Amino acid sequence: MVEPAAPVDRDAGFGIYVHWPFCAARCPYCDFNAHVRREINEARYARALTAELAAMAARAPGRTVDSVFFGGGTPSLMSEATVAAVIEAIARHWRLAEDVEITLEANPTSVEAERFHGYRAAGINRVSLGIQALDDETLRFLGRLHDMNEALSALELARTSFQRVSFDLIYARPGQTPKEWAQELARACALAADHLSLYQLTIEPDTAFAMLHARGKLATPDEDLARALYDTTLEVTDAHGLPAYEISNHAKPGAESRHNLIYWRCGEWAGVGPGAHSRLVLDGKRTALSTVRLPEDWLGRVERTGDGVIDCEGLDPVEAADEFLVMGLRLREGIDPRRFEALRGRPLSRARIKDLARDELVEELPDGHLRATLSGFAVLNAVVADLAA
């Protein structure tokens, strides 16, 4: 008989993810659960979010919340009152850590930026801006509604409103060279407060970019150029004191995103809102939950039943251990092999670790952790598959 996966390491933390699925426009590269709606009954959605939080708290009582993350969609389209109501509901059902991180994703349009002070009063203490590029031509290509002046103004306002500020950029764009990316990234590092998220452009199914790519009207970098752009990313951010702590995320030491660390360290989190995912330890077993994706269907289900959860499945030892590898090896700190053994019921193969170390794809640290090298980061899927076999 296969034993169930061991409970999550509580030291990895507990977070709340709040999904706001609405956007002013659909970006051509985006495959997130995001929707454009002319009219939104925000009061109904706010009530539904607080109801679903109560249902999640009944499943996972007694936790201390280390992080809250408002993601989307475009959470900065939410009113300050809605944000405050959600934070108040979380505080009613769980204890908030004294240093709780509460992040809101925001688009740097002037209308949304004006709300920053209100969000700060509501309890937000960290903002993540979707700037995506540092020139107007590229912003238009990416379908963004802001220009560079708005982005810089929003960034300055954010830095005066919040304790911590991050922003995103997309690179590996058509025609982009390592030299051009190095110049843009150096400017971004000079503008950054303490954190940057830097994502290679990928062609996701069922997006506008996917259709252009299929017609040969949008070219992406080949493998060699993509690797050169990634190496440039590491070199520039290291030089500016923002080293990678995860494949796509860079921060000054101590300024890492606590919420995302919960994901990558395989902690627990409760997700609320349309299409939100959760990982909770229920009855001693790591369990995956997900909610209805379509906003209107989610809203109706919550109003009828109290939550929008449609899938609730316990992970078996293989699934839990594989997830631990996939997520944990993204981190520069690596993983504790003992945690894999507790989840999987067997240790990692020493022979495979030795082979990967000989190829300079992984390394063992003095504290016993195993991590991917910078070369290993570039082929991480292959490294994970080898270790998991």
Brief summary of the model shown:
The protein is an alpha/beta fold. It has helices spanning 42-59, 80-93, 110-113, 116-122, 136-141, 148-161, 178-191, 208-214, 223-239, 258-264, 295-305, 317-328, 337-344, 350-358, 374-378, 380-388, and strands spanning 14-20, 22-23, 35-36, 64-72, 95-106, 126-132, 164-171, 195-200, 244-246, 249-251, 268-272, 277-282, 285-291, 309-314, 362-364, 370-372. Helix 2 links the parallel strand 4 (64-72) and strand 5 (95-106).
Describe the protein.
- The protein is an alpha/beta fold.
- It has two domains: 10-263, Aldolase class I (TIM Barrel, Alpha-Beta Barrel), CATH 3.20.20; 329-389, no CATH class.
- It is built from 16 helices and 16 strands.
- It has helices at 42-59, 80-93, 110-113, 116-122, 136-141, 148-161, 178-191, 208-214, 223-239, 258-264, 295-305, 317-328, 337-344, 350-358, 374-378, 380-388; strands spanning 14-20, 22-23, 35-36, 64-72, 95-106, 126-132, 164-171, 195-200, 244-246, 249-251, 268-272, 277-282, 285-291, 309-314, 362-364, 370-372.
- The protein has a nine-stranded mixed β-sheet with strand order 9-10-8-7-6-5-4-1-11, with helices on both faces.
- Helix 2 runs parallel beside helix 4 (116-122), helix 12 packs antiparallel against helix 13 (337-344) and helix 12 packs antiparallel against helix 16 (380-388).
Tell me the layout of helices and strands:
Elements: E1 14-20, E2 22-23, E3 35-36, H1 42-59, E4 64-72, H2 80-93, E5 95-106, H3 110-113, H4 116-122, E6 126-132, H5 136-141, H6 148-161, E7 164-171, H7 178-191, E8 195-200, H8 208-214, H9 223-239, E9 244-246, E10 249-251, H10 258-264, E11 268-272, E12 277-282, E13 285-291, H11 295-305, E14 309-314, H12 317-328, H13 337-344, H14 350-358, E15 362-364, E16 370-372, H15 374-378, H16 380-388
Parallel strand pairs: 1-4, 1-11, 2-3, 4-5, 5-6, 6-7, 7-8
Antiparallel strand pairs: 8-10, 9-10, 12-13, 13-14, 15-16
